[in-house]
Amino acid sequence: MLISNLLELNSCLLEFNSLVMYYSDIYTVIIFQICNTEGISVMNVIAKNIRYLRKDVFGMSQNDLAKLLGKKDFTTVQKWETGLSTPPLGTFIQMADIFKVDLDDFARIDLQSPEYQVKKSRVIANPGNPGYVPVYGKIPAGIPLEMVTDIEEYISISHNQSGADHDYFALMIKGRSMMPKYEDGDIVLFEHQNVCSSGDECAVRIAGDEATFKKVRKFDRSIILQPLNPDFDPIQIDSQDTSLPIEVLGIAREIRRKV
């Protein structure tokens, strides 16, 4: 009797699993045939979002993501990112959890869009999350960093950088004064420091004015803020002149460049 009941239970479980897989497949077909508000296939949106989150936000290789999802190798992820196939529902939910992204956003919204960047700044990547730092469009005069609201986006930083001993922020480079090393549109990651050495490339304020990014050169009686582009003039300040104090905000540590 017991064996008969166990066999019947096993049969029910197999049937249940089959139904779960069937409806999961049906759901997958339906969801990826839906179009978002711009008429773009959800399948294409997800392919783009997987690549963006994996590569640009979390810095994973395709193989890294495949291992987290229990896949044999990177080729499955590669097919998802090129739109050759779609992840099944369970894997789709698993990726949303790994990437800390809302399931509906993952399927329907271009996560690189300005609208989502605003939402992400409120929900996912906020200043209280040590894995992300703000990218400032500019640092206005007289406002402490933590009070600046001109935030372009948030970028992820490594676990080594997000420790308690380090404090980072980032600036979106605008202009040509630090070319060729730094190009217009580059994101530069700064370690927050109040002092620097001669030769450091720093975000600085002069007399509380709007922040600027220059190479700092220190001499006995003067400080020179040197652009790297020879077409731009350096700024020379008498180090004894208390009316023009220089405030170091941070030292450049890393360039993020989109291709």
Characterise the protein shown here.
This protein is of the alpha+beta class and 259 residues long. The chain folds into 2 domains: 2-119, Orthogonal Bundle (434 Repressor (Amino-terminal Domain)); 127-256, Ribbon (Umud Fragment, subunit A). The protein is built from 7 helices and 9 strands, in the order αααααααβββββββββ. The chain has helices at residues 2-33, 42-57, 62-68, 75-82, 89-98, 103-108, 114-123; strands at residues 132-136, 151-156, 168-172, 187-192, 201-206, 212-218, 222-226, 235-238, 246-256. Strands 2-1-3-4-9-5-6-7-8 form a 9-stranded mixed sheet. Helix 3 packs across helix 4.
- CATH topology type of the largest domain: Umud Fragment, subunit A
Q: List the strand order in the largest sheet.
A: 2-1-3-4-9-5-6-7-8
Structural class: alpha+beta
Q: Domains counted in the coordinates: how many?
A: 2
- Percent range for helical residues? 25-40%
Distance between the termini: 68 Å
User: Unreliable runs, pLDDT <50, ≥5 residues?
Assistant: 19-39, 121-129
Order of helices and strands: HHHHHHHEEEEEEEEE
CATH domain class name of the largest domain: Mainly Beta
Topology:
Elements: H1 2-33, H2 42-57, H3 62-68, H4 75-82, H5 89-98, H6 103-108, H7 114-123, E1 132-136, E2 151-156, E3 168-172, E4 187-192, E5 201-206, E6 212-218, E7 222-226, E8 235-238, E9 246-256
Parallel strand pairs: 1-3
Antiparallel strand pairs: 1-2, 3-4, 4-9, 5-6, 5-9, 6-7, 7-8
Helix pairs in contact: 3-4
